[in-house]
Design brief:
binds ligand C2E, 291 residues, binds magnesium ion, Diguanylate cyclase (GGDEF)-like protein, 12 helices
Length: 291
């Protein structure tokens, strides 16, 4: 007990729980105020083609609490979902990502897509596609430069309704990616019936490529399935030369991960747009040779 709860000193377990609730409420209030006064930020992580060129940026929510410090989205999103703040926060994310992407285009940078994570609660709203249309209209971003990331579980929850929602979105001209692909519990037979554009292979499959029970067969299966269905495929969480080389060898179109870049501020993302390839293809051949 001492070792496990050492940080909490002599406080009882229930007072620790109590404190957690207070922290949570405080965080929720802080988030509500941040949403009003501009306290949220987006960071951008590149998705590169096999030659290391930036093809897209994934927008990732960032929040720094005045006393708690940086709060990760894995903590923010559930809190925002509980209070339904996720609807207005999600719209802010969408608008900010589109505005920023359009801004880069206006400044003359080569056009790329921006990929925005969409929560299940946003996707479930009947007027979601209308919100997306409004944001595109307001920001002037052409729809082919916006991608929406949805997880498998969100899409298969209500297949009929999801299909309708996806069709509305597709009619706008935006693209759809299935995030964390392979971690859901869904059957594969739903996939070919959904109007989607890309699969994002969950990073767990990439990080276990070199494990004793390699995930390589799964990776190969996902990539070849994506190819057969004419879907694009993104490898997530690429951290090493070997992982990158293997994904390229197997035909993965896009790669995203710390090997290329961590998520960075909008200012730094802009530099990545004219920095040339983030990874030299020469180095890729070296890595392939040793893989
Ligand atoms: P995700 O959509 O799967 O985003 C990728 C996450 O993997 C990001 O974490 C990113 O920083 C991390 N990552 C990228 N490359 C690597 C790598 O090479 N190694 C490792 N270990 N991690 C890597 P982040 O930013 O903490 O976001 C976590 C999750 O929070 C996201 O997972 C997404 O589900 C959610 N999220 C983030 N921003 C938003 C948002 O604006 N709206 C909603 N609804 N969810 C969001
Ligand atoms: Mg994502
Ligand atoms: Mg993901
Ligand atoms: Mg993930």
């Amino acid at each position: 007990y001492e070792a496990k709860f050492g940080n909490y000193g002599t406080r009882t377990f229930s007072s620790v729980l109590n404190q957690a609730l207070i922290d949570r409420r405080e965080l929720e209030q802080e988030m509500a105020s941040a949403l009003k006064h501009g306290g949220f930020e987006l960071h951008y992580q590149p998705q590169c083609d096999q030659n290391g060129r930036v093809a897209a940026f994934e927008a990732l929510l960032r929040f720094t609490h005045p006393t708690l410090g940086v709060v990760p989205p894995s903590r923010l999103v559930p809190i925002a979902e509980e209070s339904e703040m996720i609807i207005s926060l999600g719209t802010w994310v969408l608008r900010e990502a589109c505005r920023q992407n359009r801004q880069w285009q206006v400044e003359g940078y080569p056009p790329v897509r921006v990929a925005v994570n969409i929560s299940s609660m946003q996707f479930a709203r009947e007027d979601f596609a209308d919100r997306v249309a409004e944001v595109l209209d307001e920001t002037g971003l052409a729809p082919q430069f916006l991608e929406l990331e949805l997880t498998e579980s969100v899409v298969v929850k209500d297949f009929t309704e999801s299909t309708r929602q996806l069709q509305r979105l597709k009619r706008l001209g935006v693209s759809i990616a299935i995030d964390d692909f392979g971690t859901g519990y869904s059957s594969l037979n739903y996939l070919h019936r959904l109007p989607i554009d890309r699969l994002k292979i969950d990073r767990s499959f990439i990080q276990l490529l070199n494990a004793p029970n390699s995930t390589l067969p799964i990776l190969e299966a996902i990539i070849s399935m994506a190819k057969n269905m004419e879907l694009g495929v993104v490898g997530e969480g690429v951290e090493t030369d070997e992982q990158m080389a293997m994904l390229c060898l197997k035909g993965c179109d896009l790669l995203q991960g710390f090997l290329y870049s961590r998520p960075v501020s909008a200012d730094r993302a802009k530099f990545l747009l004219h920095a040339g390839p983030l990874y030299e293809s020469l180095m890729r051949e070296d890595a392939l040779a040793v893989a």
